[in-house]
Amino acid sequence: MKRSGIAGLLLLLNAALVWPAAAQTQQTATELSPPQITLTQAVQHSLQLRTQPVVAATAAAQLQAIGYVLDPAPWLLINAKLATAEAIAAASGAEAQRLHRLYSEGRNSSLKALQAAEAQARADRLRRHQMFQTLRLDWGATLAGLSPDQRAQLSQHLVAGDSVLVRADAAGATTDAAPASATLQPLDGGEAIPATVVGPAPGITPELQAPAWLLRIDGSAAQKLRRGQALRVWLQLRGSQRSAVQIPESAIVRIRGKPYAYVQLAPVRFQRRPLTLMSPSGSGWIAETPIKPGDALVVEGAGALWWAEQAPPATAGGKAGAMQGDGDDD
């Protein structure tokens, strides 16, 4: 399996367990308790605000990694060679058995012919074993452990584009990490893509000196990916789950690089809350946040609330009518 030239991109990601350190999650007093915003019903209607209840979720400890879609050609080549070697070994082995039976029964088979057939069968078995070892070294024990029929099916899916294999390198991870599942996302954004963890990838990228895993994507999501395409990867580790919530992408407001969302506290009152984005989920994110399941989350018009929060009360009132920042904390 060829190493990709994206090692430089990999080094830009400081992959680590997503349970953030205290220093990473510290917020200023203003960020923890931002001012509340009061907007009349008429203003809310003009801004086309829409809310929906927050949905509960769970989050596991995880690793961030960068992945890329593997070229299936090397797999197809080695698998074809192995399949050929298996067929030849099976045929020569059967011929050696047939001649052995004839010779032992004193029928039409010479010792010389029998010895030649046995030597050929032995050579073919060694050739088959060599091909199997090459496949295992290049693609790992899990893929090498597939049956001939399973390997043939995988090859068909890879050629048809119904499946893709992804290598995910996790800089900063330890070799004893055991991902149970994975979520991927193209670098230019888009919906989350679930992936199956095939197993540890053979070898490591020299520039990273970090473990890597092979992932498999099937179905319509695989058809949208291309060979060599880079992907963001979240590897969910086995272990305890933590409470989290689902936040749609449309609800997220990024302010100075940090994500926030707004909740409606009362019919005319809103407040901004910080988010810690864990991993993509559908068209949104799994996040840890002070926002609780069932809270009224602003999913349309959140950007207008940020503008209203920044506008001076007099200006806001003059432009939007009774739009006012309120420093209350209740």
* pLDDT < 50 runs, ≥5 residues: 2-30, 314-330
- Reported by name, the CATH topology of the largest domain is conserved putative lor/sdh protein from methanococcus maripaludis s2 fold
Supply the CATH class of the largest domain: Mainly Beta
Largest sheet: 7 strands, antiparallel
Give average pLDDT, whole number.
82
Strand fraction: 25-35%
Terminal CA distance: 59 Å
Order of helices and strands: HHHEHEEHHHEEEEHEEEEEEEHHE
Level of helix content?
25-40%
CATH architecture descriptor text of the largest domain: Beta Barrel
The global form is: rod-shaped
Number of domains: 3
Rg (CA only):
29 Å
Structural class: alpha+beta
Care to count the β-strands?
15
Number of helices: 10
Topology (elements, then pairings):
Elements lengths: L6 H5 L10 H4 L3 H4 L3 E4 L1 H7 L2 E4 L1 E15 L3 H32 L6 H34 L3 H13 L2 E7 L9 E8 L6 E8 L11 E7 L1 H4 L6 E19 L4 E3 L2 E9 L2 E6 L1 E6 L2 E5 L7 E5 L1 H9 L2 H8 L2 E4 L4
Antiparallel strand pairs: 1-11, 1-15, 2-14, 3-4, 3-8, 4-7, 5-6, 5-8, 6-7, 8-13, 9-10, 10-11, 10-14, 12-13
Helix pairs in contact: 5-6, 5-7
Describe this structure in words.
The protein is α+β, with helices and mostly antiparallel strands and 330 residues long. It folds into three domains: 18-60 and 241-326, conserved putative lor/sdh protein from methanococcus maripaludis s2 fold; 65-71 and 164-239, Beta Barrel (Elongation Factor Tu (Ef-tu), domain 3); 73-157. It has ten helices and 15 strands. The strands form two sheets. Strands 1, 2, 9, 10, 11, 14 and 15 form a seven-stranded antiparallel beta sheet that branches. It has a six-stranded antiparallel barrel with strand order 3-4-7-6-5-8. α5 (73-104) runs antiparallel to α6 (111-144) and α5 runs antiparallel to α7. The protein is rod-shaped, with a radius of gyration of 29 Å. Residues 2-30 and 314-330 have low confidence and may be disordered.
